[in-house]
Amino acid sequence: MTSPAEEPPATTGADGARADADRVAASVRGAILAGELVGEQRLVEAEIAERYSASRGAVRTALLMLAHEGLVERIANRGARVRAVSTAEAIEITEVRMVVEGLCAAKAAERVTDAGIDELRGIGDAMRTAVAAGDVGTYSQLNQRLHDRIREIADQPVAAEVLSRLRAQNVRHQFRLALRPGRPQVSLPEHLAIIDEICARSPGGAERAIRRHIESVIEALRTSGPGRETMS
Questions:
Q1: Could you give the CA distance from residue 24 to residue 164 in angstroms, rounded to a whole number?
Q2: Which of 18, 67, 183, 223 has the most C-beta neighbours closer than 10 Å?
Q3: pLDDT given for residue 14 in this prediction
Q4: Comparing C-alpha atoms, which of 45, 85, 37 is closest to residue 62?
Q5: Is residue 103 within 8 Å of 156, Cβ to Cβ?
């Protein structure tokens, strides 16, 4: 998680309290997304307040916000913890993601510029190099960069926000899939097909390509087992 020195100072007043809650929520959300906070990990209000130089009230509000997003759960008489997501729920989340990602891919194909095409091609080339070198970490980073750029090119802020929340809920399962032997070799041609369709400015083709990719992710999740999974 980010150190207190990197956080802006706490503010005062009603607007300031809300700003502090938003700031804390963003920081905790980012830590979950980065895998720094994992399923069933306790979230101690006093520790979070100290880390982010915020009031206990702001932390409590932030945790309630994250609970509404499905990232945190509050346990009676035990406080809050990062919500663990079962494989079954991860599949449901990914099914929703497939629809929204399909929309973004179609819009990206409509709106991509020549410079955007060059950038997407460059990401594809870097992904090929990473897979050939067996560099799973770099490939995983490029994977996320590609999906992020597609959303940015699509210019669909609401869809991007929805996908950000879905990704945060599913981050543990994404890490597990990324580390599965042979998974990059499966997903690389799927990603390159997405790039090809967007660069061809084919909305229908781009949507179908990304849906095929995410269907592959869902199938991989189905074979990963039914239990609740947390970071080890």
A1: 17
A2: 183
A3: 60
A4: 45
A5: yes
Find the Cα–Cα–Cα–Cα dihedral 228, 225, 91, 33, rounded to 10°: 50
Residue % of the chain over a pLDDT of 90: 56
Q: What is the pTM of this model?
A: 0.68
Compute how many other C-beta atoms are within 10 angstroms of the C-beta atom of residue 3. 8
Q: 188 pLDDT exceeds 50?
A: yes
pLDDT of 17 strictly over 80: no
Tokens at 66, concatenated = 């994250």
The three-state secondary structure class of 86 is: strand
The vertex-135 CA angle with 140 and 82, nearest 5°, equals 35
At 178, is the secondary structure helix, strand, or coil?
helix
Nearest alpha-carbon partner for 219 in 97, 92, 91? 91
Q: Using DSSP bridges, classify how beta strands 72-75 and 79-82 pair: parallel, antiparallel or unpaired.
A: antiparallel
- The pLDDT of residue 3 is 44
Q: Is residue 228 helix, strand or coil? A: strand
Q: Is the CB of residue 21 less than 8 Å from the CB of residue 28?
A: no
How many C-beta neighbours within 10 Å does residue 2 have? 15
- Number of helical H runs and strand E runs in the chain: 10, 3
Torsion 92-180-32-152 (CA) sign:
negative
Listed residue (76, 69, 59, 79) closest to 10, CA to CA: 59
